[in-house]
Amino acid sequence: MPTPPRPLALLAELTYRCPLKCPYCSNPLQLRRYAQELDTETWKRVLAEAASLGVVQVHFSGGEPMVRRDLCELTGAAHELQLYSNLSTGATLADFAKLQELKSSGLDALQISLLDSDGDANDQLAGGRSFDKKRQAVEHAKELEFPVTLNVVLHRQNLDHLEAILDLASDWHVDKLELAHVQYTGWAFLNRAALLPNPGQVQRASDLVAKAREQFAGQFEIQHVLPDYFQSYPKACLQGWGQVFMTVAPDGAVLPCQTAREISGLDFPEVRTSSLEQIWFTDPLFQRFRGTDWMPEPCRSCDRREIDFGGCRCQAYLLTGDVSATDPVCHLSPQHHLIEDALGEAGGLPHELSYRTMDGAL
Amino acid sequence: MTKHETIGRPTLAPGVRYRWDDIRQQHQLLFPEGMLVLNESGAAIVQRCDGRSAEAIREQLAKLVSHGQLDDDVDEFLSRLATRGWINDADTS
Fold first, then answer.
1. Cβ of B93 under 8 Å from any chain A Cβ?
2. What is the mean pLDDT of residues A183-203?
């Protein structure tokens, strides 16, 4: 097997603690199991190891990374290591003083989540008051000259507000609007029937985004990540397993993908006992789905095997129980009917949302 | 910004950074969630986007490259970066 390229990006999930309860959270369902967080010194070592391994960008995330008291120390360490740093936050703790401190530490860019265009709808979905704080945080961040990306996760319950979301991004003067449809893993998989949109909503969203790209050209950029359940081919998950990305979870587990903990039976390496370099180049988990040798048919002989890499391993496992299966999103998958069934069931009956809690899913 | 608008005094936009990657031996322009790998002349231009005039950058680059005639390249390159929002013009801000 050829030597893999060095990773470009590290997702540093500093904590799974979060004041919000978004029902599509990408964190694991059994959060309590991973409550023991790495200390400041270990995180600093991880950042240094990431820089020597070739990581260029570090993405501080969570949970809510701003609950960590040492956040500025860590963004400062990243800056000294010449890593480009992004912070992904729900912004409920992002007052002006805190953002100013982060700016001084060398943090480069901010991503602020928003759940809906309307304050009440946002707060209801987040399981707590947060809309006004998000608006203020964007304002402060722009005043401090941070590039700001507004992240809105799209689904059945907010897709009809997309026009208002686009106007709001314009009013708030963000630099970029990321419109990513829910990926159905983790908490979102649990809430799939309530979150999956109908095909009309998806089409309308694409039309609106095309129009908005013209209307807001030169003002802000729009990234639209389409829902893979509505595609013929799976997404190029991670740009290939163990090719570009690595995630360090709050407890020190190193994951090829942040949702890989949903796959049972995998052994995750740990920063407490190995270096990132050892893990990236030699750990069996990182080798497991590299390249194309592991692929079953129809992927193995498919022309697109190096375009989409067989799709998402977490999704294949969640839907089929076989982590090596072709992602059922692919219309060539022998189990594609699982996607069609889910689309058929979506929105048929009123579904109660399960909100993310530290105690995990019931 | 229109495609061929000339830039008076280019500066890197907030959150955009130049970096030399020692491991990959390459020049990089970093911005939120992405990067551009620069060639030698791209790096020479970007490293001079500090508020000096585009004209000064052209002159300095022409000295660096013996065959000269870089004017169009510099303007086109700057205009391309400006379209993506990676550089601003200190003359117009």
1. no
2. 92
